[in-house]
């Protein structure tokens, strides 16, 4: 009889507290904080996924990149890694560099004499010597000068946002707690990153035509204006009832579609 009562009591307790990770009748209360499920990013932002991990939403509509908070800032608190835990938790260092999908040479956001070569999404660090700095245009170390200054990313006031790499605006780095992370965007040729729309946009460096990144039926016409500035005009390839064409990004001209 006592055994049946014990079984019934256990069943009742589990039915009430089964979804929780701590029970009030235990001699020592141990609470395990469960990670929140990874969801789709609704905005470019940083957010805590649990007490010790931060999710970096770098692309809207995609799952966040989740990285641990470690070192002197092991807690995630108010969308940033912190030494102090949040009110819901009682408890890093951001990953030094995260290679993008495409292999290549990439600048370091915090050290102008450091760069990273990514092969198969694995980064190897290289350091320039003396007074040299890394150039994204030569993909190598160059002598520091007025035309090749020491460039680092300024994340002040940009928590949970992208900040541009000053020497080359085709690069942008994600900021957390006013510090740049290794999470980055690299725009294609003749493009720069726009922090207003969080997208790569066309950028004229010489007169000619560029592909429109939004619609291949259009192209961008670059013409030199006063003060060595460029005017950008969006034009459409010929498309009528009898002719259908798109802009070829290799030939840089409108071609008839098959």
From TrEMBL:
Which keywords are on file for this protein? Signal
Question: What SUPFAM superfamilies does UniProt report for this protein, alphabetically?
Answer: Invertebrate chitin-binding proteins
| Signal sequence region | 1-18
* Pfam families per record: CBM_14 (PF01607)
Gene3D superfamilies assigned to the protein according to its UniProt record, in alphabetical order:
Chitin binding domain
Extract the SMART domains matched here.
ChtBD2
Keyword Signal (UniProt): yes
The residue ranges of the Chitin-binding type-2 domain are 96-152
Q: Which domain of life is it from?
A: Eukaryota
Q: Which GO terms describe its cellular component?
A: extracellular region
Entry keyword Signal: yes
Q: GO molecular function: any one?
A: chitin binding
The protein in question is named Putative peritrophin-like protein
Q: Which organism is it from?
A: Rhodnius prolixus
